[in-house]
Amino acid sequence: MLEDIIDSKTDSVVLGFFLTAPERSYSIMEIAKRLNLPSQKAVHSLNKLSGQGMLKNFTKRGKKYYLINNRYKLLPEIRKFWQKQGLKYQDEMLLVIKKLGKIKAAFLSGLFTGYPNLPVDILLVGKVNLKKLDEFLKHAEKLMGQDINYSIMTVDEFNLRRNTFDKFIKDIFDYRHLVVVDEIEEN
Asked: Which stretches does DSSP call E strand in 15-174?
């Protein structure tokens, strides 16, 4: 099984990407674009890896998304092998989020973490440049094939809502989420 994946250049590249890229969900279009693969080849590999349990997938509004299955029993051994190869993928999306203004905290949730029914996909805390945010959202929505739900809060609002166990904030932190940046001191 693993030998088949290693022997297949496309499967190997796709799996290597998921093992070394930030742990979030990726659309078929994004995988194909990032790895410079024809969409059909990307879909074939993604479905094969998903069928073997290495990747999980979910659907939102007819679009399919994939992320690494951290419960796959051989994952630690496979990850160790790929890390020895020295490959690491930068996630341009995460880099751009950090540059959307004076961002004190940014969290990915919902669509990006396999919970598409959560109310927010990106939470930004701080002063956000709305023009940059609009450009980022257009690009990200094209890659993800979906509208991205986002919320912007001031540091004070975020701290107040976090300290009062606000349901909106709780929904982000009670489920799997990705911390892009967090420079907020807890009160």
From this structure: 26-27, 55-60, 63-68, 101-108, 122-128, 150-153
